[in-house]
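User: Can you help me understand a structure? I only have the sequence.
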Amino acid sequence: MFKHLLLTCTLLFCLLPPLAAQAEPARHSSLLGPLGLTLIPSARMDEPGTVRAGVSTLDPYLHGTIGIQIATPLYMGLRQSAEISSLHDDAMRLYPGVDMKLRLLAEGPYHPELSLGWLGAIGHKRMAGEYLVGSKRFNNWDISAGLGWGRYGSAHHIGNPLGLFGSHFKKDRQRDGEDPNGPSDWFTDQDVGLFAGVEYSPPWIEGLSLSAEWGADRYLAEAATYDYKSPAPWALGVHYSPRPWINLSTGLIGGEKIMAALTLQNHLARWPGKLFHKGDVAVTPEPAATGVSRAQAPLALPDHLSTPQALGMALQTMDSESAASVEALEVRPTHRGLTGPLLRFNRRDISHALKQSAGSPEEIWRNVAFNPETAGELTPAENSSAPVHADLRLILDEAVSLSERDQGLLHRTSLIAETTADIPLGLLGGMGLRLNLTDNLDQLNDLRLPSSLPVRSNIDQFANTTFALDTLYAGWTRTFYRDWHVATAAGYLEEMYAGAGGDILYRPWGATWALGAEGWLAAKRDPDSSMHLDLSGDAVFTGHLKGYYEFPETDLTAELRAGRYLNEDWGGTLALTQRFDHGLHVRGFITATNQSEFDIFGGHTNVHSGLSLTLPIGNIPLIPQNSLIRLSAAPFGRDNGQTLASPVDLYNLSEPLSYRHMTHYWHDIGE
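Assistant: Let's start by predicting it. Here is the structure, written out as tokens:
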């Protein structure tokens, strides 16, 4: 397991280029994953988009973590803790968990940074714990102190202060057992622990820091299970970053045990990939004169460009081809059958800024006029004359899971060749072929109870087929009135399901919210049939109400959906998506339903979660534009809380037409 974890962490890191040197010392992970000292967490946060992967060991555990700073105040990580007697031996038990940290207060001149954290917010009880911690920097010294519950509070220093708010928080807390940790366990127990530490970064050695701390973990679960002698609670640590992208840590724990850790970190914004080949794109709409003072043209937005960049190319063409009497240029952007507002530009601004390089995007922005009331009003001639557009891309799909109790690390690697076509009148279609390259799912269900109606639990059977049809569908999309969008699709919608259904979305122009609903009649595909073309079992209806919120002045979106999942269970999903330039984005989610799944230790769980990364590689020579690497870290083979992977997600399809997208990427209009 140790070799697999180290290899996976290294591969994930190597996808990103090295960080540039930085003045301040590199922050490092604590033993269990969150940023901190040697053993205790701190209130510190990474820059949004930072990815960390690492391994650490302290008797009797080996820990592997993968974490992402999804947004400025939110960190989310997946952790697998293995109980081992030696690094050369197989794990005796596995304790997976989902870790989170939420920053409540940024550091100021007179107050500390304050963060609230969950270790194993969803996961095994043995490694679960919560904490409230503050950190304050004084020149080269960084001091952290806080309160701990569960794993971080087993020293029982003082009574639980949350007991003032009700008896729920004062109930006795189980520190072991097979039922997973969940919200009902958070911040509970009769007493809490106190922890504190200080870290010093000497100015004469860049990347080096020394730490001393006092923890509150007394290893009560281990002492109750077997003859384990916990070390004294103090720790002295040495942390060194020979390069900004790597950190090595070691510590003396209680004078008798040694901790060691390796962490690799980098930032997604430094990813060199893009969705397109540089210098290999062109947008040439045909402007149609609609009067002596203005020229107008519809513009089909390509997927590999931001909308402002495509607008800039189209406007330069319109300026060159329009009569001298034309004073205004009007463009109506469309994307995959959806239409955006009519945009009216001052021709003089376009010529001055884009062709003569004497202006700026800000100058164009001051005079542009948006008319969202015209969305969806394409004329029949515009609809029927739109060209057929086809797009081919490759997707390297890499899925891993640290959230397993029967296997320490599961993985699957596939290569998907996918093509989509846009046809006039809002018609579209798509086809994908999947080549399964490698996986270790052959023993996935050896220790699990078989499902009579598997949803995703027979993923190993789908992975056994070397070559199969991934998708084959036809659909229709339309903006039928202002901010209302609708989509339908039918066929082989994803690798494991065929079906038919639709999506509807209300996304007001300029608003930071959107509402939608979707419904699908889905039938499971047969993994034993040729190309997975046959269907097995009865069709099932799945549908959800959806809500979206865009955090102002960011590219961060919160999504909340509630409804019926593929296993006929009811529940909800909360997800956060952070987008970056050039098509790169990260997503974290948590799903809870009214049905629980049995695990091999006799416990049940109603909740699962995961992380995903999308990394564009379309600018690599000989690779089709819009190609990407898709990385996901989530539980394999689960049946509850599973949604259909819709090929016509209206929120994503409408994103290039949104006010948020226009403003965020407006600087691209001159590129």
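Now, to help you interpret it: The CA atoms of residues 44 and 285 lie 50 Å apart. Confidence is low (pLDDT under 50) at residues 1-13, 18-23, 281-285. Let me know which part you'd like to focus on.
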